[in-house]
Amino acid sequence: MSRRDSLRSGARGWARRHAYSLLSSIGALVRSPVATAMTVGVLAIALSLPLGLYVALDNLERMNTDLERLESISVFLELDVDAEAARRMASSLASAPDVLTVDPIGPEDGMRELAGATGLDDLELGEVPLPWVLEVTPAREGDVGRLANRLRTLDGIDQVIVDLAWLRRLDSLLSVFARLVELLGVLFGLAVLFVIANTIRAEIQARHEEIEVMALVGATPAWIRRPFLYAGLWMGLLGGACAWLLVRGGLWLLAGPVRELGEAYGTPATLQAPPGALIGLLVAGAGLLGILGAAIAVSRQLHRINP
Fold this sequence. Notes:
By secondary structure, the protein is an alpha+beta fold. About 75% of the residues lie in helices and about 5% in strands.
């Protein structure tokens, strides 16, 4: 027999062995549908928690980015600045390279906004002297503080207000939330590993006598081990896929309330699903954890059965 024929025969034998183990593992899972469904359900819940937190974090970061794009500086002019002078100042500021837009707000418009914010009408507020206000939007991120300092030095400006502290606090909270997602991902990954290892251990104990007979008739440890490794792989893959379905269902249930919340604040709000690459990584990672958990359980149990 030539070397090529020998390699071809060896490849066919390898494929037959793995095909048998693959079908055997599927048959073992199908023969115990309740136990399999319970195990997959536990895995799906364990994997859906960090995935759901990641989706929430991703949407919060996207919302935070949108808010940062809307950063603006409120420039209150002096009371003696009239409409013509305010518009000239707005036009002059709008031509600056570090300014994107300038929106002048007159005293009448400011009065209406104040009345709407307080729930009172103009008559109840009385004659409140309000200055012209320029809403200045910076052209680039990171220019807000420098632009505000420059505006304070101009003539005719009474006060410059930049309220970005809450955005900075939100950034800090998102950083803590991101670290929490990483920690929970590791912990629930270990939980998946332990659940699959315990399930495979129980399956080996239930087939204790069968494994002893197989060992007596000459079955190699690899032959005995292989179906259990495939079973761990299938449970991991099914758990990862079901976890994605749970998260997808949660996004569908929350889509309506989130949209209504955005409409209440006058801004569109939608929940974005994670990319397909992340879902593939989740399912593949769960499958690898299944193989690892099964390998740990099989090695320990086979050593006890046939040391």
